[in-house]
Amino acid sequence: MKVFRDPRVAMAVSMAVFGTIGFFVRNISVSSGELALYRAVLAALLIGAYLLITKQKIPFREIGKEARLLLLSGAVMGVNWILFFQAFRYTTVSLATLSYYFAPVIVTVASTVLFREKLTGRQILCFVMSTLGLVLITGTVGFSGGRDLIGVLFGIGAAFLYATVILLNKFIKNVDGIHRTLLQFLAAIVVLAPYVAISGGSTLGTMNLKGWISLLVIGLIHTGVFYCVYFSSLKELPGQKTAILSYIDPLVAVIVSVTILGEPLTWLQAVGGLLILGFTLLNELAPIKKQT
To answer: Binning pLDDT at 50, 70 and 90, where does residue 287 land?
Structure first.
């Protein structure tokens, strides 16, 4: 599509689409495990069909070298989706998404151990302030009721798993782009299918027309199409632009939550969300080096 030839447009549209996923999850009656499984199946089928039509070969030699990491990252991705969808079941789309966006902070701290990266003063400040934002959110929902707190905790759990996926992908060097995405979806299916079978089986028969449409949108559009658009644009953009554009996702999610779904957002929760997003963004923006 011509509109996606500009990687900045592709990234911005992808983030805006991702920000609407909570709206569609609200319409689906199946369990979070089932939703995660069907999402992976639909996306894998779409990407597999695309590879067949375009006659792209899968690099099996490179895959063999990193098969364990690909399988592990895909499995973690599947469980991450379950927790993220569970967050929507218990709390508002705003709080679920804002708590989920604590993941970049987790990656920064974990990198000090895994890659021996030293924390700068600015990174420490960003970690402290982002954590304060998370405390404001969890503290507020803790006083207001149990369901919201459970939802935020699911969001934080999903953030830890998403951070794990990011860190695992740093070790995958030989397989990238659409092939990596397809293999991770297949790995997620391998993990999620037995879980769904054990936890109650399929309940697709209980869904209405709105639920079916929403499931197809999440599986084919959000995941199948825009995961590929996102990863394709990711290769073309520098880190700072990627960091800035990625915050379209939570902003759209908050707008959808408050204006379309009519979900509440207190001023303390808004401040907490701004601290998380603002200082996480500051952490990801590298200081501009002086030209010599």
So the answer is: low
Please answer whether residues 168 and 73 qualify as being in contact, where contact means their C-beta atoms are separated by less than 8 angstroms.
yes
Scored b (16 or more CB within 10 A) or e, 134-145 reads bebbbebbeeee
- Euclidean distance between the first and final Cα of the chain, in Å? 41
Alpha-carbon torsion 112, 118, 122, 125, what sign? positive
Distance CA 263, CA 88 (A): 12
Residue 229's pLDDT band (cuts 50, 70, 90): confident
pLDDT tens across 21-35, in order?
Answer: 999 999 999 999 999
Q: Report how far residue 280's alpha carbon sits from residue 264's, in angstroms, rounded to the nearest whole number.
A: 24
Is residue 283 within 8 Å of 123, Cβ to Cβ?
Answer: yes
Alpha helices (runs of H) in the chain, residue ranges in sequence order: 7-18, 21-25, 32-53, 60-65, 67-90, 93-100, 103-114, 121-144, 146-170, 177-198, 209-216, 226-234, 239-246, 248-255, 267-284
The answer on pLDDT for 69 being more than 50 is yes
Cα(95)–Cα(101) distance, integer angstroms: 10
Q: What is the DSSP letter of 118?
A: P
CB contact at 8 A, 14 and 221: no
pTM, rounded to two decimals = 0.86
